[in-house]
Amino acid sequence: MTQPAITGHGVFTPEQVITNDELVVAFNAYADLWNAENAERIAAGEVEAMGHSSSEFILNASGIEQRYVLDKDGVLDPTRMYPRLPGRPDDAPGYMAEIAMDACGKALAMAGVDASAIDLVICAASNMERAYPAVAIEIQNLLGAGGFAFDMNVACSSATFGIQAAADMIRSGSIRKAIVVCPEITSGHLEWRDRDCHFIFGDVCTAVVLERAADAKGARFDVISTRCATQFSNNIRNNNGFLRRTHDQMEDRRDMQFMQNGRKVFKEVLPMVSAHILGHMGDEGWRAGDLKRLWLHQANRTMNDFIGKKVLGRVPEDGEQPNILQDYANTSSAGSIIAFSKYSGDLEPGDRGVICSFGAGYSVGSVLVERA
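Structure (tokenized):
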């Protein structure tokens, strides 16, 4: 059976940054406006006054210090609190395809692969810009890739599920080269006006090239094994699903944007993910001492510290479990790939690591890789 390998990776990072301090100023101004508009209802006890946020609250709750976004002004407008991303004409590239081209270009350059040699494009992301045609097919067209393309949505686990699908096709011989791209415009489906979650997400795009190990032109990471699992839960949910939203959806349907029951997620997801990784490693004969690196989904610093300690059987040392969410915030499916892209170049041949993502569904995907 053919050995698949990751031979290239790339990250698109937006130019605009929102710091915690900037976000707090905007949110608190919105809260003051909302409280003024609802003063009579608040006085009558019909609704509670909206409390202020703070940079200390955000950092303590998540470990996030800033986030990158495609449109800063719209998010920080207290009368709006969501990005301005005007609809584009049908003959213009979509937002997701546009940022995907940057990340894909970097990944292809690292792999030394021409886009025309790609047999498969998977656009794996938590929210798609439209229902159809598939964003992946648009990316395929812009790249000039061959073969076929399709979209995949498993929320924050989309990247690892996409890697498994591509790796399995390479193993079977149905394709030779693939690119899994994760354009995450999370600012479009985050509820920036909810104090419990207004700080969580940021925008980004990642891409990884997978091909037959025998075709690799340089250093590579062999994909030794992949494993995915899902278990239905409503504790993380988004009923809208697309970037654009209507006034009615914004005002009357809180559940149309990202929402979660954070305490239940912590309680239920952490043991699920830890057991998944340990079970996957055990079945492949891997032990904790074999691991050089853990590239985890970047949702929350406390969650990652817990999982790292469970998997390694001790507190991770510096560099063993890199975190990037302090800079990027939660970037959904792209988070573990950002960590992999930025903190994998120092590994030596024979070094082993695990890429793991987890999120709504619940879903969890793990990829065991070895530097070659």
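The longest strand covers residues 221-230. Residues 246-250 have pLDDT under 50 and may be disordered.
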